[in-house]
Amino acid sequence: MSWRIPFFAGSDQVQTPSSTHGVPTQSWYPPSVIPPSTQSSAYSTSSSSELMSLSADAKSAGIVSQLKYKSVDELKKLLADKAAYKAFFNSLDEVRIQNHTYGDLRKEMLQLAESNLEKEPSLVELKNQCNVIRTSELASAQEKLAELSRQRDGIVHSYSRSGLLDKLNEAAYKADEDSEMLQTKLQKEDVDIRTFVQSYKNLRTTHHKLTLLYLAAKTSVF
């Protein structure tokens, strides 16, 4: 690029062009020097803007094409008469498409609502059945839990200090009762004397032994 250097009479100074005048608005760098990301983002932004602009222009052109054939009186009527304006507005293709879409959506929503209302009795019945099943299963589970709790308490008691004392006392009491019954049999002559003496001796020995163990365990601390 060449610059014109003016010469003025009586002056040997050279005037250079100002930095703010004559500078080209475009970049001096070739397109290959510009980063690709900048180029692509700028292109996509401009492309989307152009598409939106073209779409808006197409819609506006469609409306204008319907208005330009109307007379002045018809245009005034559109501005003054709300009913006429509404009729014209609803006759536009874009509005008719939107109204048709809205009608389809409304129809589908009504169908879904009716379907839900038809299923409501079945849902209520299923809910009641679930409540009955849950109540019965809960009662059965509680009964089993109570039975297991009783069994656990019985096992714990049988191996506790009081449980062992009760067992000793019951065994001593049973040996005493058996010896009394043996005496009754002897009186009725249901048993011979030799058998009576041997059995009675064993029962009384067992009774006294268990009684002593019971008393010793009851008075001891363990």
From TrEMBL:
It is found in: Endosome. The keyword Transport applies. Signal peptide: none annotated. Residues 9-31 are annotated as: Disordered. InterPro entries: ESCRT_assembly_dom, Helix_hairpin_bin_sf, Mod_r. It comes from the Eukaryota. This is Modifier of rudimentary (Mod(R)) protein. It comes from Rhynchospora pubera.
